[in-house]
Amino acid sequence: MYIELINEIFESAPLGFVSATNRLVDYIDSIDNLLELIQQIGTIPESIDHDSTEEKLFAKASDAVLSRAFRELGLRSTVIAERADAADVIATSPIFGYTLVADAKAFRMSRTAKNQKDFKVTALSGWRKDSDYAVLCSPYFQYPRARSQIYEQATTHNVALLSWEHLAFLLKHNIKESEELSLAPIWNFCENYSHSVVVAESKRCFIPEYSDFIVNQIGCNYGDFSTLIECQIEIIKARGGIECGYWEQQKAEILSFTREKAISELIKSRKIDEKIVQIESYIRGLRNA
Description:
By secondary structure, this protein is α/β, with parallel strands linked by helices. The protein has one domain (2-220): 3-Layer(aba) Sandwich (Restriction Endonuclease), CATH 3.40.91.70. The protein has helices spanning 2-12, 17-30, 34-40, 53-72, 116-119, 121-127, 149-157, 164-172, 184-187, 189-193, 207-217, 222-255, 259-269, 272-286, and strands spanning 76-79, 89-92, 99-104, 133-138, 159-163. It has a 5-stranded mixed β-sheet with strand order 1-2-3-4-5, sandwiched between helices. Strand 4, helix 7 (149-157) and strand 5 (159-163) form a beta-alpha-beta unit. Helix 8 (164-172) crosses helix 12 (222-255). It is globular, with a radius of gyration of 22 Å.
């Protein structure tokens, strides 16, 4: 299922961003095994170029997966059309009437240091506007493990730091909001947590406590969540082998280059010709200024 999604992204890219996004949303809405996508969507494939159309479409696909997951949980949810300074997903509870905005995150395994700006916790809070809750969904193992500003920001602004693994756990246990079970406390976790954490510990990672809260909220055993995490580690290891394999293949291809081909590829990779064109264009424009 995940390989099919990547193929859809590459095949859709030439259609233009809006048409490609619509095609991807329709594809994700039509699949049966959403759980498989949730287990994989947190990792951007190395085969997708940085800052490419395909990378932007992958981000939209992750939004669509998150929106579909919310619907599986019993909420009404849609992916918001492309626009700046706004959340990508919105969801509403048809039973309890609350609304939430959400942002899906995915990272490359080859990505080194991440900082608080990568998670956009404060920005997501601002995008909440009149909604009751704000939810960030990121890979479980990409959240900082010790101390980070994002935990202080989350408790200050009441932004839920959900993970794809949390979603997988909820869906695997067929959790659906009902008159007897509101999911609002899960989205509102940081509001209550903020009253119990002291200032000195405000930047400490609280993901384990959040995981424990989610498990208790739906009446499950924490051992079941630990089992899911162990399974996810194996899935990530397998993906790691695939992603390393991609770069090994790229390395082998480069080693096979002739001298002329290697020089040409180096010039292209450093965008030297484009930089020359831009400088010349700037100089020509001086007389018209």
